[in-house]
Amino acid sequence: MLEVLERLAAKAGHFVELRYHRKETRRFEVELGRLENAIVYRRSGVGVRVLERGTWGVAATSDLSDAAIAQAIEQATIAARASADFRKVKVAALPVGNLARGRFATAEYAALYQQPLEAKMELALAAEARAREISSHVETARSNYQEIFEEKAIVTSDGAACELQVVRSEFAVNAVAARSGTRATYSESSGATGGWDCVFRDRDHLGLAERAAQLAVDLSTAPAAPGGRFKVILAPSIVGLLAHEAIGHTVEADFVQAGSVAAGKLKQRVASELITLCDSGNSEFYPGASGTIAVDDEGVPTRRTVIIRQGILESYLHNRESAAHFEVAPTGNARAWEYADEPLIRMRNTYIEPGDASLAEMIAGIGDGFLLEGPLNGQADATGEFMFAVARAQRIRNGKLAELVRGATVSGVAFEVLQSVDAVSREFKWDMGTGYCGKGQRMKVDAGGPYLRCEVLLGGQR
Known about the structure:
Elements: H1 2-10, E1 15-31, E2 34-52, E3 55-61, H2 66-83, E4 101-105, H3 109-114, H4 117-133, E5 138-156, E6 161-179, E7 182-193, H5 196-199, H6 205-219, E8 228-234, H7 236-248, H8 253-257, E9 277-280, E10 305-309, E11 312-313, H9 320-326, E12 334-335, E13 344-345, E14 349-352, H10 359-364, E15 368-380, E16 385-397, E17 400-405, E18 408-413, H11 414-419, E19 423-424, E20 429-430, E21 436-437, E22 443-444, E23 446-449, E24 452-459
Parallel strand pairs: 4-6, 8-15, 14-23
Antiparallel strand pairs: 1-2, 1-5, 2-3, 5-6, 6-7, 8-24, 9-10, 9-14, 10-11, 12-13, 15-16, 16-17, 16-18, 18-24, 19-24, 20-23, 21-22
Helix pairs in contact: 4-6
């Protein structure tokens, strides 16, 4: 397919970007000992973008013949020319230089693809059964396993010509427990770029099921969380969500141009000097992060981008178009979910770098506060304001972990919370491996970091 795309791009006579994308998703869901869903979904085609007269034209085709792709190029060209007079701000010439050439592949792709489907179904069945075995208080459990296989060929008329092969796998189990008329739910999950060696690196499927069930039982008798401003320790799962939702989106260059809170703040202090926040196409610190990509969907090699360095806002996240506008190099953040989707500026693996404190030292430094783990849901906006529900909150009293509480929410303005950070742990974890970003179209991402000690507003009951 790469040779076909190169030949057709060379004939275009103007800038053209061609992206072949084949995606196969396999998903198995189990509840109450039954396989509820077994889904295999395949889709493939070629997405086309043309830049003519400072305007983009977009088309796509699921027909992989030369004639159909050539027709899609012509349709995108006509669309660009027809709309050029209506575009007030023209797209400047795209940055030239470092575009990807060659083949990039995930080592576990072939082995996982060839593994029998029955083994993957048994994985989900065994985990769901184990969750229900933990306690008679577990009313129900659900488990699911999913894997996504992707193959791409990306060609641009100004030099990109590469092939990619990547597999992402993920597993999750949820348990619902009830005691004394109170129900509680807890989920454990793991996702990675790669096969089972990556997704079950820290805990196997049965271990995830056991923890989900036991915590659901424990939370069913936990008292409600109090409300108020507290010194807290955010676990890597919440640090990752904060980095992605409340910081990462505000520094995506298209949002910056639309007026996000990060606009005009480059070179300004926005966080404690203990905070260095990055977004990377690589899996930093250890392999397997779910947003790992070698090349973005414009053919730009991905790299580690330092967004905040020791508290100073240093960079936004760019595609080729926004990089031209800001007169910087593209950061490799253009991503499309499927072949017919237009690449958007998206995060990959977003994280805060580890520090030099230990979790034990951080706990010992709190007289009255909480250790917060496991975000359930939440929201953030372009101002950096956020509110997340917390699955597991544990009281800290006189420097020691105490009782669990339930129903906690955490809120604040992200940059203000980061300015309050006074300790960052050596421990680091990727902890959003089963998460998806929903900016316009779904996208596989990951996020994580160390433990952070800071101040937040905790929501609960008075």
